[in-house]
Specification:
This protein has two domains: 3-150 and 222-263, 3-Layer(aba) Sandwich (Rossmann fold), CATH 3.40.50.150; 153-220. Helix content is 26%, strand content 33%. The chain contains nine helices and eleven strands. The longest helix is centred in the middle third of the chain and has 14 residues, at 124-137. The protein starts with 11 loop residues before the first helix and ends with a strand.
Length: 267
């Protein structure tokens, strides 16, 4: 597993994450909020990070547990939870731990893994361990929902580049500083099916000094039937497969693969 997704190396990254417009405007938040609100019981979010999805779920009345490996991301999330009204705060539990090996001493009706967090699990044995662990924490006929990007082979064939690609043009922060962000793929391991990725933040201070923060991590990519087999091996049956967060069917041009799976046997 790619430890912490690169967030633990630089504490400032957890703060910068919350400032990125493409994260704040990402359509997955409304999708997962809808799923959590319709759950018939408590919800577990794996890779909850700084609470981008968890906080709206708590505000909507969900009984939700968030698990994340990064100390800094959880600290950010905990601060937001502490600022909620008492009745909302009491519905949230935060736990530091790995999504491939956790024991929360309880059962959930819904487990979610938003924003491609499953792609931080690199090896097959860890993938099976994580899905089996989820199985043990789900009620029978409970639901697992997660998303990964759908691989575009045309893009994958030319993805390796030393050149940084800007994905967030510079914008002004509330404190007057300016932030822009780039990314690049620095290495490709096609045998083990992951890329080494860097997300690079350029923060211009009020003094004019530019600080460069690099979030580096390996990122696994999956194919549809690979995931179907992993789910079948760990006690799940796929009940829906979407190609985007508007719940449209998976097509060749779909940007996402969003799996909705039901627990059908104990592991």
């Amino acid at each position: 597993m790619s430890k912490y997704g690169g967030y633990e190396d630089t504490p400032r990254l957890a703060e910068l994450y919350d400032l990125v417009p493409m994260y704040n405007n990402r359509a997955d938040r409304d999708f997962y909020l809808k799923q959590a609100r319709s759950a018939d019981g408590p919800v577990l979010e794996l890779g909850c990070g700084s609470g981008r999805i968890l906080i709206p779920c708590a505000k909507a009345g969900c009984d939700i547990t968030g698990l994340d490996l990064s100390t800094h991301m959880l600290t950010s999330c905990r601060t937001k939870v502490e600022n909620l009204p008492n009745e909302m705060r009491e519905r949230v539990r935060l736990v530091q731990g790995s999504m491939v090996d956790f024991d929360l001493k309880g059962k959930y009706s819904l487990v979610t893994i938003p924003f491609r967090a499953l792609q931080h699990i690199i090896g097959v044995e860890e993938q099976l361990a994580g899905l089996s662990c989820i199985n043990r924490h789900l009620q029978m006929n409970g639901t697992l929902i997660f998303d990964v990007f759908q691989v575009d082979m045309k893009i994958m064939s030319r993805i390796l580049s030393d050149k940084e690609i800007e994905n967030t043009p510079e914008f002004k922060l509330p404190d007057g500083c300016r932030l822009r962000r780039t990314h690049r793929v620095v290495a490709v391991d096609s045998v083990n099916q992951f890329n080494n990725v860097e997300i690079i933040y350029y923060l211009t201070e009020l003094s004019g000094e530019v600080r460069r923060y690099v979030q580096a991590f390996p990122f696994r990519y999956y194919f549809r039937f690979e995931l179907e087999h992993l789910l079948a091996r760990t006690g799940f049956k796929i009940v829906d497969l979407f190609g985007d967060f508007d719940e449209s069917p998976l097509k060749e041009e779909s940007p996402e693969m969003i799996f909705i799976a039901e627990k059908v046997r104990e592991i």
